Amino acid sequence: MKSSQIKGSCAPLSPQPEPPCNYLAHPGHFLQCMWPLHMDSMKSSGLRMSLLLITLLFGFCCLITVIAGEVGESSSAKDEAAGGIFTHSTYMDKIYGFLSCLVAVLLYGSNFVPVKKVNTGDGMFFQWISCAAIWVVGLVGDTLFRSSKAHPAAMLGGVIWATGNITSVPVVKCIGLGLGLLLWGASGLLIGWASSRFGLFGLDPEEVSKPVLNYCGAGLCLLSAVIFFFVKSDVQNPTSLEATPILIEERSLSDIPLPSDSWVDTISPKTKRPLGCIIAVLSGFLSGSAFVPMLYIKHHATSNSSMFAGSSQNDLDYCFAQSSGIFIASTVYFTMYCAVMKNRPRIYPRAILPGFLTGIMWGVGTYCWLLANRLLGPVVTFPIVTAGYGLVAALWGIVVFKEVKGLGNVLLFVFASCVVLTGSLLTAFSKI
C-alpha cells in the first residue's frame, strides 16, 4: 500500500495518519473509536462522577416514565368523568407533576454532558444521531403505552424543535454549555410561558390561582438569564487528532483539503460570544414554540367545527408524533448537508454513542415534561423546566468543566442561581 493512499474506513484525515483499525479482529478498537473517553481521562474523578450521575438520572427518569403511564390511565378516567377535560385537582397529581418537572430539568440540563469532550465538528452528524435516538424513545413509549392517538399535525412541533436543534453544537462551541443552555432556556421560557398564559398563536389563555406569583416567577427567571449573560465563560473545545473525521472511501491525502472541523473555529474570539448568544436566543424561541402545535390541537379538540375535533387531551399521546417530526426534519437537514458537502459529510464515530445517549436523555425527559404539562399546565411547567435545566447546565459548566473562573464570576453565578430558584418556586406556588 502506498503511503499517499488510504484504504479502509478508519484512516483519519491528518498529515500523519494512524494505522487503520481492524474492528473484526479487535472488537475493543471499535468501542474505543466509538466512545470518546480515553483510559487516562477515565481516571479523572470529575468525569467518572459525571457518567455516574448521568446513569442515575436516566434510571430515575425511566421510573418516572412508567409512573407517567399509570397516571395517564387514571387521568383518562377523570377526563371521561369531566367531559374530556382534565381538572388537575388531586394532590397526588401535583406531586407527580412537580417530580416530573424535576427529572426533566435534570435530564435536559445534563443531556449535552456526554459530548462535551467530544469533537462533533459542525454538529450536523451529531444532531442526526441524537434525533434518531429521540425517535427510538418515542417509538418505545408509544409501544408500551399504546398512545398513538395524536393528530399527524403534531409532528410540526418536532420539525420546529429540530430546526432550532441544528445550532446546538455551534452554540456550545461559541459560549459554552452553561451559558448556551441558559440563554436557550430563557428565550424558550418567554415564548412558551407567554403563549400559554396570554393565549398566543390561537391558544386559549390558561388561568392560575395566584397570577401575581406567576408573573413574578416568570420575571425572575428571565432576570436570571440576563444576569447569567454577564458571567464570563472559558470554553475549551477538543482539538485532538484522534477526533478528526473518518473517511469512508479510498482517497489520496493530497486531494483532500484539511479545513477546520467547524465554521465556528474560523470566527474570531471577540465575535464568538455575541454570535453565540444571538443563535442561542433564536434557537430558544424555536424550542419554546415546539409544543404550540400540540397545545393548539388540544385546545381545538372540543370544537365540532375544527379539523382537530375529538383529538386526544392526553399530552403523552403526542410524544411519538413529536419525536417523529424531529427525526424526519433532522434527516432532511442531514441529507441537504450531504448534498452541500458533495456527498463528503464529516462523520465522527466517537460522537455516535455519546450522541445516542444525548438523544435518549432528551427523549425520556420530554416524556416527563409532557406528563408535567398534563398535571400542572404549561403556564407552570415552562418557567420551571426552561429555567431549571439552564441552571443544571450551568452547574455542570462551573463545577465539572471549569467554564467559569474567578471569584467575581462565581459570586455572580451564585446570585443568578438564587434568582432562578426563587422564580421557579414562585411559579410553582402560583398553581397551588
In short:
This protein has 432 residues and is an all-alpha fold. The protein has 15 helices and two strands. It has helices spanning 27-34, 39-42, 45-81, 91-110, 124-145, 155-165, 168-175, 177-198, 211-229, 269-288, 292-299, 319-340, 352-376, 378-400, 407-429; strands at 5-6, 251-252.
Report what the structure shows.
This protein is mainly α and about 425 residues long. Mean pLDDT is about 75; it is low at about 1-45, about 75-90 and about 240-260. It has a two-stranded antiparallel ribbon with strand order 1-2. Helices cover about 65% and strands about 0% of the residues. It has helices at about 25-35, 40, 45-80, 90-110, 125-145, 155-165, 170-175, 175-200, 210-230, 270-290, 290-300, 320-340, 350-375, 380-400, 405-430; strands at about 5, 250. α3 (about 45-80) runs antiparallel to α4, α8 (about 175-200) packs antiparallel against α14 (about 380-400) and α13 runs antiparallel to α14 (about 380-400). It has 15 helices and 2 strands. It has one domain (about 45-250, about 265-430).
- The helix fraction, in percent, is 55-70%
How many distinct domains?
1
Poorly predicted segments: 1-44, 75-88, 239-259
What Rg do the Cα atoms give? 22 Å
Number of helices: 15
On the 0-100 scale, what is the average pLDDT? Answer: 73
Strand content: under 5%
Strands of the widest sheet, in order across it, are 1-2
Secondary structural class: mainly alpha
DSSP strand count: 2
Q: Cα distance, first to last residue?
A: 72 Å
**What is the chain-wise order of helices and strands?**
EHHHHHHHHHEHHHHHH
The best one-word shape is: globular
